[in-house]
Automatic annotation (TrEMBL):
It comes from Calothrix anomala FACHB-343. Residues 1-149 form the Histidine kinase domain. In the N-terminal section; belongs to the phytochrome family. It comes from the Bacteria. The chain holds residues 400 to 558 of 558 of the full protein. This is histidine kinase.
């Protein structure tokens, strides 16, 4: 059966809210048709828990964290935008590699695995993940996942 994304993300955001300080604001927007998405719940949790925890962790001075869920005919897109410390341009391309961290993390703890895990889980769904960031301004991560609904239910039929 397809994954019902609204309660799925509401649950993840609720867990994230429990780790926020009062200087943070978490905004959740949805638009379009995000019904009919097929995916693995556990892998999707890995993706979005890692991305939201990064948005919070790398916004030590608070600010707003915006989470957008957008559905089209064929894909589901999720945008996660923060107003945190950002990432130096020189570090950006290697961050999806295991154990890679930005040079500006200071004393913020981390292993450098979250984005590598997220990218693997996104790719298992046939999707893609991109990161846009400006140091001192914030970071936006975009995840695009195909709905994969075509073919489901038709197994064993056709040829
Ligand atoms: P963990 O394995 O616990 O997630 P981590 O957060 O350091 O550790 P990743 O999630 O893979 O590892 O992120 C890699 C690096 O990318 C981070 O160390 C940080 O430098 C940078 N980064 C990731 N997300 C953000 C963000 N939202 N804002 C600023 N820097 C970020
Ligand atoms: Mg992380």
């Amino acid at each position: 059966i397809p994954l019902d994304l609204l309660p799925f993300f509401a649950d993840i955001l609720q867990q994230a809210r429990e780790t926020l300080t009062e200087e943070h604001e978490l905004i959740f927007n949805t638009r379009g048709n995000y019904q009919g998405f097929w995916g693995d719940r556990g892998l999707l949790q890995q993706i979005f828990m890692n991305l939201i925890s990064n948005a919070i962790k790398y916004s030590p001075h608070g600010g707003s964290i915006e989470f957008d869920l957008i559905g089209t005919e064929s894909d589901v897109m999720v945008y996660i935008k923060d107003e945190g410390i950002g990432i130096p341009i020189a570090d950006q391309e290697k961050l999806f590699q295991s154990f890679s961290r930005g040079s500006n993390v200071g004393t913020i703890p981390g292993t450098g695995l979250g984005l590598a895990i997220a990218k693997s889980c996104v790719e298992l769904h046939g999707g893609n993940i991109k990161l846009f960031s400006q140091i001192g301004q914030g970071t936006k991560v975009t995840v695009s996942l195909p709905k994969q609904s075509i073919g489901h239910g038709a197994w064993g039929m056709g040829h």
